[in-house]
Structure prediction request, 108 residues.
Amino acid sequence: MPDLVFTRRFSMGHRLIHGASESCALPHGHNEFVTVRLTPTHPARLDGKGNMPVSFQRAKSTWHRFVDEKLDHALQLAEDDPLLAWFQAHEPARAQRIVITPGDPTTD
Prediction:
């Protein structure tokens, strides 16, 4: 049984403050691709009815909506980045759109 694979392109901003080059310490953006792979735990031929927990279209649209609403055009910052504290203090509504990572958010 093949996996279901969804790929979505999005744009993001980030900065790297832990040992990266000086140019990476300034906020900047990238275009990215993110892929999710759903692998069945009990492979069986899908019958299109009873053994399908969710349709392909619904799974794909749910994943794309998550990327569009949570990742696309979001700013990604390390949890100890001082810029995060600034946004939380001065622009709390925008701070809610920041993706916080345990270390530098990287594109590697």
